Every structure is written in C-alpha cells, then in structure tokens.
Amino acid sequence: MRNSVEYTILDAVTPVAITSSTDATPIVVTATAHGFVTGNLVMIQGHATNIAANGIFLVTRLSSSTFSLQNRYTNVDIAGSGAGAGVATGIVFVAPKILLVQDFKTIELTVFTSGTATTTIEACSSMGKVLSNSTDGHGDTPNFGATTGKTIPYTFVQIVDLQAGASVNGDTGIVIAGTDILKTYEVNTNTLKYFTMFPVSWTAGAITIKAFLSSVE
After folding, report:
1. Which of 74, 75, 68, 83 is nearest to 25 (CA)?
2. Backbone φ, ψ for residue 51 (5° rounding)
3. In terms of domains, do 106 and 87 share one?
4. Which of the listed residues 94, 127, 151 is the one where a domain comes to its end?
5. Residue 173 · residue 156 · CB < 8 Å
6. Are residues 191 and 154 part of one domain?
7. CA distances in angstroms from 44 to 56, 143, 160, 189, 190, listed in the order given
8. Residue 1 reports pLDDT greater than 70
9. Domain end among 94, 129, 146
10. What pLDDT, on the 0 to 100 scale, is given for residue 192?
11. Which residues 6+ apart lie within 8 Å of 48 measured at CB?
C-alpha cells in the first residue's frame, strides 16, 4: 500500500533585499517595502556581519521598511551577534514549510519560478537536535537558515534532477536564471527527519516549491 501526502514549501514567494540590521535586542531589520505584518514567520538568508539575524523568526512590524525579530516558539526578542550592525546583504521572505519526512521513502519536488528569475535554491535536511543541547525553544527542530553547529544541526543535501537524470550537489543547489522555469527533482529521505528548501541567493522572480512525499508498505 502506498502512503502519500503533498505539501507546498514555498507559495509564490518573492524575497526582499535587506538594507541593514541593528546589533541590538531585539534585532531591527530594514528592508524596503517588506510587506510583513506582526506575527508573520520569515526566513533571513545571507545577511552578513550581524549573522544572528539569519534563520526563521517571528516579526513585529515597526514600519513599512522595518521590523524586529522574535523567537518563533517563545516570542523572546532576538539579540544581535555582537559583531556590529548588519550590512546591505541577504534576503528576507516568508518562511518555508519544514516537513517531517521520517515515515516516507522519497520526495518528488516541483520547483516553479514566475517572471524572470535569478536565484539559487538549496535542499536542506536534519536528523533533529540532541534535546539536551536545546536551549532556544525550538525543541527537536533546528532553526533552518541560521548558522549551523552542535545545537543547530542541519546540512544541504544532494537531489536528483529528473529531467537531466543528474545529481545536484547539496552545496551547489539549484541555480536558476531564466523566465518561467519549471524543474522536477527527487530526494531519497534515507534516515532523515526534517526537510525543507529555500533560496540562499536571489535577485529576481517569485518562487513556488511543491513536495510529494511517498512510501510503500
């Protein structure tokens, strides 16, 4: 018997470039016309210097161009990294869905972009955290997008391009440059527990990623 379920990881998501961030508590991010409201869950990727801003967080809207960051589970304000204010690097976007995949064998992925798109998207997985190391309120789920380490254990993983019949290196990711791109991929979940995908760089285009999880009993 085949068990299957379908999820949307990203739904027509268009990232916004970050102008700066404060090295304070809470971190305040400046991103022109960000479009977020208080309570939205966002991911920040590739922000330099103030790297504590990278990851998945709740936001509090301060203005049309600024918002502060809070822990998604505890609502505690996020503190800066202590290295200084963040510079004009990185992107922010509606956070991707994190899938619990341990009961499934394979994931079929469809990646769409609309309009002219320039982006690199990477597949990310984790076997979960050692709970004794969990101090951030995230429980077993690592804060995907944050700096990896003992308490934030995740890695970028290889996927297979079903059209080209070729593997895509996890650290390279899916490099997209074109108009209205549609690509399909497959992932063998092996012993993985969590899986998601997100852009690690972006300059144009809306991104949609759908995942079809299946297993055979």
Report:
1. 68
2. -70, -10
3. no
4. 94
5. yes
6. yes
7. 7, 11, 26, 25, 28
8. no
9. 94
10. 87
11. 86, 87, 89, 90
Report the candidate in 28, 73, 63 with the shortest Cα–Cα distance to residue 47. 28
Question: Is residue 150 scored above 90 in pLDDT?
Answer: no
* Number of folded domains that form the chain: 2
If you count DSSP H runs as helices and E runs as strands, how many of each does the chain have, helices first? 0, 16
Q: Which residue has the tokens 């009961």?
A: 103
The span from the CA of 136 to the CA of 153, in Å, is: 13
pLDDT digits (tens, 9 = 90+) for 104-134: 889 999 999 999 999 999 999 998 877 555 5
The pLDDT of residue 135 is 53
Contacts of 24 (CB under 8 A, 6+ apart): 79, 80
Distance CA 125, CA 144 (A): 9
Which residues form the domain of 32? 16-94
Which single residue is written with the structure tokens 């597949």?
A: 123
pLDDT of 38-90, one tens digit each? 999 999 999 999 999 999 999 999 999 999 999 998 999 999 999 999 999 99
